[in-house]
Amino acid sequence: MTQHQLEVEGRAFTLEPQPIRTSLTDGPAMLWGFQVRVLSGDRELGIKTCFVGRVSVQFRDAAAPDGPIEALLPVLHQLAYEKIEGRLKDGETGDEILFA
Q1: Residue 7 confidence (pLDDT)
Q2: For residues 72 and 17, what is the distance between their CA atoms, to the nearest angstrom?
Q3: Which one, 1, 30, 56, 95, has the greatest CB density within 10 A?
Q4: Based on the structure, what is the number of domains in the chain?
Q5: Rounded-to-integer distance, Cα 82 and Cα 3, Å
Q6: What is the structure's pLDDT at 22?
Q7: pLDDT band at 1 (very low <50, low <70, confident <90, very high)
């Protein structure tokens, strides 16, 4: 998985996404879940468990939900990163569940 570097209020963070899990259904996937480790240097500050819905993904890239994983992953990760960045700006570095 690709790490994402960002700076919030002068503090550097690394976001490290973990493997994706998809909803179990006979139809198209409606929800994807994955954890993102929040690191500062070598220290883990918390784990954000992220759930991203199909509508959010389709809004960003209409073809991604039904396309190859190579098209889906960047959209899922970017939606999660944006949500996590907002939480980091609020000072929330610890474990939590987020919906994007």
Answers
A1: 95
A2: 14
A3: 56
A4: 1
A5: 14
A6: 86
A7: low
8 Å CB contact between 53 and 30: yes
DSSP state of 73: H
Residue 17: what are its φ and ψ, rounded to 5°?
A: -70, 145
Q: Which residue has the tokens 């949500």?
A: 83
Scan for tokens 């220290």, then name that residue.
43
Tell me how far CA of residue 16 lies from CA of 27, 60, 63, in angstroms. 29, 21, 25
Q: Can you give the residue range of the structural domain that contains 71?
A: 4-99
In whole angstroms, give the CA distance from residue 100 to residue 85: 12
pLDDT band at 2 (very low <50, low <70, confident <90, very high): confident
In 2-100, DSSP assigns E strands to 4-8, 11-17, 21-22, 31-40, 43-53, 96-99
Q: What's the gap between Cα 15 and its chain centre? A: 9
Distances (CA, A) of 46 to 3, 92, 95, 97: 15, 9, 5, 11
Q: What is the pTM of this model?
A: 0.92
